[in-house]
């Protein structure tokens, strides 16, 4: 009996020792989902590059030193809200994902934002543009990073009018992004004394813009505003060049165009385009250093502003999780993100307002002429810097229920 008791005590000690050892080395597993367009019109602005950017952020955060283990999963929403919602529900309900990033396509982002709120998880949108995400559709669980339709309008729209483009014709993608971009740019054009004389909606995606461009030409508008993005913008700009639109006195305004789009077009086709972006790989030493690392991991391609925003958004989210010592309450994590000052090497110093809008500087660029470009990714020249408080809509004007009753402030 004594031997049996001795062996039981010895076995218990061994089991307890193993348990204590495992507990001491155990790490909390945190899953992040990168939900984007992996194969369609927006795949070049995010796609697998957004996954790479997220993984870089995780590596730079060094989670193991903080008692965390972070896993990155990805999904292709195919620019369809129902598929985006299905991914979000599966990730949140069954797969243990605590936060979703990227989400190009405004209709998908709005739908996923509703699911994040319902499940009390975090959503950091970097790829979608509609300013409604921080307006009437704002959520305590959603942060909107990078840019929005108001900032694009305030940058490119106002500049084109000041350059003499006082009459506009819009070719807009026929879904929520194109509609809100046209709406917000129209407001800026009219505020600056311009006039919209016509518009047409193009199905998303569209390969052949010839008939839409012909209608824009026939309107006589001084500016043809492209309220689209990704492959649609590339196709429209190419075909506008083939039709000789710019050489006949009409200006083309690509209201949302990324460096990857300009790289695809080439400076010969895109030269002279004025555009607004929140990030460019060649802005300063910090952006160049990050972009060189990114390109090394992504086939030599420089990051887009969306991919850079995924990196910055993941880093800021992880800092908030570390401060809270938990990621289980999505609204609390987003609240902590708003509370903490945002400061990173890609977007600089900024803040996240109560409506979820990330505030940082925006930049007005012009695409270089071929003779000015010194390499395949040497695409832009900087025209001006627009402060975040000038670029983005004042918080009191957005109609976000989260800020009702607060004093009117930017």
UniProtKB/TrEMBL annotation:
Source superkingdom: Bacteria
Alphabetical list of InterPro entries matching this protein: BCAA_transport, Leu-bd, Peripla_BP_I
Alphabetized Pfam families for the sequence: Peripla_BP_6
Leucine-binding protein domain location: 30-368
Keywords: Amino-acid transport, Signal, Transport
Gene3D superfamilies from the UniProt entry: 3.40.50.2300
CDD domains registered for this protein in UniProt: PBP1_SBP-like
GO BP annotations listed: amino acid transport
Family: Belongs to the leucine-binding protein family.
PANTHER family per record: LEUCINE-SPECIFIC-BINDING PROTEIN, PERIPLASMIC BINDING PROTEIN OF ABC TRANSPORTER FOR NATURAL AMINO ACIDS
Protein name: ABC transporter substrate-binding protein
Organism: Methylobacterium oxalidis
